[in-house]
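Priority: medium. Attachment 1 of 2:
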């Protein structure tokens, strides 16, 4: 369940409203002449309080965490992806990539004709899960903080859903950007 559905359900049942999720914004402060590349990549990024990179990040870390109102998370966060992550990369119509991901999606009934729908569905679920705090922290380096988000789509060949991990990078201002539409089961 998400916070909003839990809130709605509590209201219908006359129960106490759930606590609003607490979000933080990482702020790199320029207080010295040396700067940590990882802290610079985290600057301005938003995280659920319980799922934030280690802070302070290192011994001489000058970064601080500021509160982000949950309403701002819901109204300003975005999840974006490049169409090229699906066509040609994921569906690999010219056989340029050796990952074989297209075979898995074909076994679920998907072709390159489904690329636009799949892109929008993964962005939608990525946004919902990110703003609900349903993500896992991944690698952090000078390219940014990665997160994993599990998505679920219908298996067109069977009466069931398939679930898999998608890979994202957290960017400033509540934006997440898709790195890979399929990062594993």
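Attachment 2 of 2:
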């Amino acid at each position: 369940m998400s916070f909003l559905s839990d809130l709605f359900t509590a209201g219908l049942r006359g129960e106490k409203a759930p606590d609003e999720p607490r979000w933080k914004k990482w702020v790199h402060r320029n207080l010295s002449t040396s700067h940590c590349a990882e802290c610079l990549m985290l600057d301005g990024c938003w995280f659920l309080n319980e799922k934030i990179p280690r802070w302070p990040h290192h011994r001489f870390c000058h970064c601080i965490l500021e509160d982000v109102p949950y309403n701002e998370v819901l109204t300003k966060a975005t999840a974006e992806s490049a169409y090229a992550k699906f066509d040609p990369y994921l569906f690999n119509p010219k056989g340029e990539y050796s990952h074989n991901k297209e075979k898995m999606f074909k076994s679920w009934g998907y072709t390159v004709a489904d690329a636009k729908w799949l892109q929008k569905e993964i962005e939608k679920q990525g946004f919902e899960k990110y703003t609900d705090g349903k993500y896992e922290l991944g690698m952090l380096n000078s390219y940014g903080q990665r997160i994993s988000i599990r998505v679920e789509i219908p298996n067109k060949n069977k009466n069931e859903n398939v679930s898999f991990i998608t890979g994202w990078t957290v960017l400033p201002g509540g934006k997440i950007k898709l790195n890979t539409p399929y990062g594993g089961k």
